[in-house]
Amino acid sequence: MANRRFPVTLSLLMLVLALLLGACSNSGSPSGQESSSSPAQTESAPSPSSSPSPSSSEEASPAAAFPRTIHAANGDVTIEKQPQKVAVVHWGYTDSILLFDLKSVALALPFTEKQSVLHTDTYKPYTERLEELAIVGENTTVNLEALLSYAPDVIIAGNAINKDIVDSLEKIATTVVLDEQQTDVWGDWPSVVTEFGSILGQEEAAASYIADFRAKVQSAKGKLASVEGSVAFVQIRAKEAWLQGTNYLPTYYEGLGLKAPESSEMEEGAQLSLEGLSQLDPDHLFLGQFNVSDPSLPALSDEWSKSGVWNTLKAVQNGHVYDIDGQLALGYGPLGNSYGVQAVLDALSQ
Q: Please, what CATH class does the domain formed by 47-219 belong to?
């Protein structure tokens, strides 16, 4: 009897040992690991998350799947290891790259550094955690010498904004050129953030920020449901002003449910004179100032305020004119949009 039980017991022990060894082997590789990034991966809907921004270092997985292949506008680009030094030479992508857990970033800016929003309270939580922040371009022009000196692991560019320098970029470092029609930062920054997550191996951080932002917009929309009257956003420069169209501000008009003034120019927007503004005559007027970072720059609204026409506006008479940072609120990136949602909420909740 004892001799008959021994083979069965031994067989069971061997089976258990095999299962334990198999479990240990599987635990050594990330679950769901992929060797490449495809459009289906980058465009998938992010899972809800309540994680605050900026993302913590715990969200970034050092064991992310590298090497990985990114299907980019300049072909299939293989990134051998998780990037540590990242240069972004498309000036519209500044917001997007700062969301991620990186220690070293190089940026090309739309204006000079002094005029940029890098040193605003909105950006500080993201820029101050960097160990290195290099400027490799100003006024939309990339400084290739500065970029070479920075020695990036990966360069991220756009196929429209950076089309004339792609060959030069590829000689400096591994370069991922985004298709600006598929990942349209001007109207759909979540697609850019999602693609950045794939490039950097930080998909969870991308999904978390997008979900958190959408929840913030939904919450603000509920709080603004009782706002009455029309709302206009005007970009203010030194000598020009531009009405911001509903097509370019979907976060505010569609997302927050704000009512636009009735005008044939409201969809696309247009350059605006004070007389044109008086015809529009919105109940609430947001002036997106572009001299917040550098107050020494003039603003056309200063001249408007001296005019009798200005004082006829309903928004002026009712105290419903709000100055906001135009570079942030009327920009196209996630940090600017997040600032804008909060600025609009604060102003219209008064």
A: alpha beta
Tell me how far the alpha carbon of residue 4 is from its chain's centroid.
69
Q: How far apart are CA 155 and CA 173, in angstroms?
A: 6
Condensed to tens digits (0 to 9), the pLDDT of residues 234-282 reads: 999 999 999 999 999 999 999 999 999 999 999 999 999 999 999 999 9
Identify residue 248 by its one-letter amino acid code.
Y
Is 224-348 a domain of CATH 3.40.50.1980?
A: yes
| H or E stretch at 145 | helix 144-150
Residue appearing with tokens 């101050």? 128
Query: pTM of the prediction?
Result: 0.80
Distance separating alpha carbons of residues 257 and 320, to the nearest angstrom:
18
d(CA 12, CA 20): 12
Q: Is the dihedral of CA 270, 224, 94, 111 positive or negative?
A: positive
Alpha carbons 254 and 271: distance in angstroms, whole number: 22
Is-same-fold flag (47-219; 224-348)?
yes
With b for 16 or more beta-carbon neighbours within 10 A and e for fewer, the 183-217 pattern comes to bebeeebbbbbbbbbbbbbbbbbbbbbbbbbeebb
Token duo for residue 217: 């917009």
Nearest to 283 by CA among 335, 227, 212, 330: 227
Asked if 169 and 155 touch (Cβ cutoff 8 Å), the reply is yes
Please state the domain extents for the chain: 47-219, 224-348
Asked if residue 62 has a cis previous peptide bond (ω within 30° of 0), the answer is no
